[in-house]
TrEMBL record:
Residues 24-143 form the Schlafen AlbA-2 domain. Signal peptide: none annotated. It comes from the Archaea. It holds the Pfam family SLFN_AlbA_2. This is Putative transcriptional regulator with HTH domain. InterPro entries: Schlafen_AlbA_2_dom, Schlafen_AlbA_2_dom_sf. It comes from Nitrosopumilus piranensis.
Amino acid sequence: MIGKNILDISFDDIEFLLKNRIDESDVLDYKEKLVKEQDLVKHVCAFANTRGGHIVFGIKESGQGGYPVEITGLLTSDLNKEKLEQIVLSNIVPRLDVKIKSIIIPDSDKSILVVQIPDSSQKPHQSNHSKKFYKRFQFESAEMTENEVSDCYRRRFFNYKQVNQYINETLVDVKEDTVTLNVLVVPSNMQYRMIDTSNYEEIEKIQSIKYPLYFPQNSLPNYPLHPFAHGLTSKYPFNNRPEELQIHRNGSVLYVGYYDHKNENSEINIPYEKVATKIMQTLIFSHTLLSNHNYFGDVMIVVTTKCLSQSVLPNKNGYLSDYPHLDTLNAIIEREHSMPYVETKYEEITSSMMNEIFNHYGEFRCPLFDEQGNYNGYGGRKRRQQQSK
């Protein structure tokens, strides 16, 4: 079950824990019954301050640190996921996003409750109830020492420095006479190697994910994966198709594209619908990859669009506006969001970033998105047509 997107966890996974006698660990805890509010907050803090993981309610275990002996379940009528989510959001500092799923036990009025806690990049987290910090230790939620709390703060700030350094080293330089696009998604917690890139068959399955129907057909590169210094790369083997998808061992994903669409004035047209589509696709791909490797904390999202030549924003009639072209374009846009937010708000995130690109040309907003951040490009119209049928 560990390593699965919580949306994909089913009752078969719960039975797997029982049949295979999967013991508790630093990332897995069994509870036969729901616990008090202050205890729930304490346990969630402990997981977030350690390595993240899952709490499974409705399972009787053999003893502390033991394995499941019975799936007892909880009365479905007693479960209120929204209330539990609000308890966590309101009583943990810094604020922490968790995912909660109720899994119905077949032929019964009971369910299993699974709480998925991220390995937080904002650790240490404190309980508002006790004003204390907790960690997972010997299958329990133990109070952290003052030195451990101080060490967490030190690691947090060092980690941000490490992430920023990694971003600067990873972004690809601009290529002459092109619009060079980088879309980089980096886990905010880079303290360990997340992905075994020797297991490329598993990553190939993720690489072939299906995007929403309203996206244009040109998806991310889906060529055979090859090893390189940071992990795995997918690009056209004869190197004459100007795009690449990189999957790094630390969980980072980088899309690089080069576009050289020149108009009759030898200016480069900014292919902004393609840029927006690639950003959204990279966000969807990154979420799928990281969720399958049990990471659903925060990510840094960096988009760069650079062009050393004269460039304009085109539309069907020529230019989008009367504003002059740019001699050079150098747009560097950064965001930090939790993975649950990326999963549901990738259009809104992309809209915000595209608006910043358009600001360079004297425009307030990118016309591909409405004021709420919904994608309204060609694919958006296609989606609305399908929804109206």
